[in-house]
């Protein structure tokens, strides 16, 4: 078929067994040069050949979930390209000079930790950049990306913090921000952000904050917040978040090192999901009546010092789902129907699940199922009566 006769604009290839790699791209470049969408998701492809750079009308290119390791420099010829999706590919580095002419690129989706050596600042129309490895040149160029809606950056060093904050202040349309420190025990220095984007809705921070940056409490449009390995301590950390007017989901994953969490009356007025995971020092969870007024889902995971069921759960009239995961069996025993001293705290909740170890395996049980298993264990542990002995 000649290129003058071909009117094909989109090509989708999914999960095929074998693919004539170079022949296919050569055919596309020669006969289907008006193609605008090329989606090779999941194709057994380990190389993207130079011919792809001849598809000058291409707007969308995806090698998601392939074995592709190198993106050819000819990609720089695709001046109409708007989306480049490399997610779950084997690409680790994007070559120097690849972005200099991709002025229309809006969405660059890459595997976590991909290194962009230089040139990202040319992409002034870019709206999505996820998830790129931090380096000195990249941090300097981020200030040019003022149209970003989604930014994900990892392996951030402490000394990058101020420059990153300066760049973020220029991103007036930013809706989602994910930042990973170079390691879980490394400082994530974001305190110098004085004027955060008012549009920010989703915030994910991985690394030690030690104290909560003041600007987070001013994010009136924030919907979801995840804090991982944050090292926060003291009631003030939670108190600063409780007034966020639109927060719907809050996730602490090893994010709080304090002994007590306290939820005030009227705190978190729109919060619907609360996840407390790996809070190894937590021994008390206090929920005042009127706190968390619309909470529907609560998960408490791997909190080994929490020995008593928080009685304030009884105050959560809207709670529909409660999960306790990898907590001490003595803690779960207190919620056995009819005999557990804390069963009254949870009996009003529609769905309660215990995820626990039994014989080295995880089980997922309702309180009644858990009670049946524990009763069976008790009977098996009782010594058998010896015959003939009165």
UniProtKB/TrEMBL annotation:
Gene3D superfamilies xref list: Ribonuclease Inhibitor
Repeat recorded as keyword: yes
Domain Disease resistance R13L4/SHOC-2-like LRR: 8-322
Record key words, sorted: Repeat
Protein origin, superkingdom: Eukaryota
PANTHER family xrefs: LEUCINE-RICH REPEAT-CONTAINING PROTEIN 57, NB-ARC DOMAIN-CONTAINING PROTEIN
Protein's UniProt name: Disease resistance R13L4/SHOC-2-like LRR domain-containing protein
Species for this entry: Rhododendron williamsianum
């Amino acid at each position: 078929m000649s290129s003058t006769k071909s009117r094909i604009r989109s090509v989708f290839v999914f999960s095929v067994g074998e693919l004539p790699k170079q022949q296919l791209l050569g055919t596309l470049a020669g006969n289907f040069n008006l193609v605008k969408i090329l989606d090779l998701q999941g194709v057994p492809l380990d190389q993207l050949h130079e011919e792809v750079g001849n598809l000058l009308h291409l707007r969308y290119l995806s090698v998601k979930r392939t074995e592709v390791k190198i993106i050819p420099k000819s990609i720089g010829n695709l001046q109409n390209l708007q989306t480049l999706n490399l997610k779950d590919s084997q690409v680790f580095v994007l070559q120097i000079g690849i972005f200099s002419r991709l002025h229309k690129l809006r969405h660059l989706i890459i595997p976590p930790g991909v290194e962009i050596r230089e040139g990202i600042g040319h992409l002034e129309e870019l709206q999505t950049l996820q998830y790129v490895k931090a380096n000195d040149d990249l941090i300097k160029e981020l200030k040019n990306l003022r149209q970003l809606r989604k930014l994900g950056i990892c392996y951030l060093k402490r000394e990058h913090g101020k420059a990153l904050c300066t760049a973020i202040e220029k991103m007036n349309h930013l809706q989602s921000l994910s930042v990973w420190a170079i390691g879980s025990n490394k400082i994530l220095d974001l305190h110098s952000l004085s004027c955060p984007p008012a549009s920010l809705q989703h915030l994910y921070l991985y690394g030690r904050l030690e104290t909560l940056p003041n600007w987070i409490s001013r994010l009136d449009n924030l919907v979801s917040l995840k804090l991982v390995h944050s090292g926060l301590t003291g009631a003030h950390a939670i108190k600063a978040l409780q007034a966020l007017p639109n927060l719907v989901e809050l996730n602490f994953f090893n994010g709080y090192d304090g002994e007590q969490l306290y939820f005030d009356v009227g705190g978190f007025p729109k919060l619907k999901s609360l996840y407390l995971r790996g809070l190894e020092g937590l021994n008390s969870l206090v929920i005042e009546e009127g706190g968390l007024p619309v909470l529907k889902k609560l998960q408490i995971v791997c909190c080994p010092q929490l020995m008593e069921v928080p009685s304030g759960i009884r105050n959560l009239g809207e709670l529909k789902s409660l999960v306790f995961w990898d907590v001490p069996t003595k803690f779960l025993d207190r919620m056995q129907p009819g005999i557990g001293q804390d069963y009254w705290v949870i009996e009003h909740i529609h769905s309660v699940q215990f995820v626990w170890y039994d014989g080295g395996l995880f089980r997922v049980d309702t309180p009644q199922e858990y009670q049946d298993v524990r009763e069976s264990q008790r009977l098996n542990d009782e010594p058998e009566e010896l015959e003939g002995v009165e």
